[in-house]
């Protein structure tokens, strides 16, 4: 907790898609800079920020495996995609004067630091934004599960999942006008209603470790700080 925020240490899950901006593939540098600005704003509130970045804007293992490629190899490519996004995000943060370090769960010492819990915790305590890339380092997982894992091991008191909409809805609000937004849900309700928030492994990990999940709109400039400080719309999943 800080004077400005009820949260002391937050794990932001930033999907690869968010980095595409209005595009259909790759990194949109205006979107990247805006998201870096939003992260720096939250860091400026005195909140420790760790980020797990996805890779869906560049590569998705499961889709490629469906075309015949070995799933484990395709997932390794997906994890490498998240490293590219993480390097771009760390660079965008550093360019605006916010200390940031990208760490990879797949060691590649000539590119960035290898992720270790100890180094990540030390960097967070020193005020750096820690960007955890390469997911869990293992195929058959997602970056949502990596986000839940990093939130648990780094002692985060919130997993903030940035999405395309301002919370969790009863149906997809983009296709179903009768969809309603939940203000609050329990982890069990998310699982029982099969709400598409995160995959089951990720939700189960946050439930087991009693980590609340806040789903908010990452496309809204300033939305991250607004959600954390209770000014913006979001859904909170907690027990
Ligand atoms: N991935 C993986 N293990 C992990 C995390 C990710 O194999 O622990 C791979 C997987 O192929 C996935 C890709 O990396 O499709 C990109 O991650 P994700 O789809 O979660 O990214 P997002 O949807 O958040 O952009």
Automatic annotation (TrEMBL):
This protein's encoding gene: pyrH
Organism of origin: Minwuia thermotolerans
Name this protein carries in UniProt: Uridylate kinase
Single GO MF annotation: UMP kinase activity
Binding site for UMP: 55, 75, 136-143
Primary localization: cytoplasm
Gene Ontology CC: cytosol
EC number: 2.7.4.22
Family the entry assigns: Belongs to the UMP kinase family.
Pathway entry: Pyrimidine metabolism; CTP biosynthesis via de novo pathway; UDP from UMP (UMPK route): step 1/1
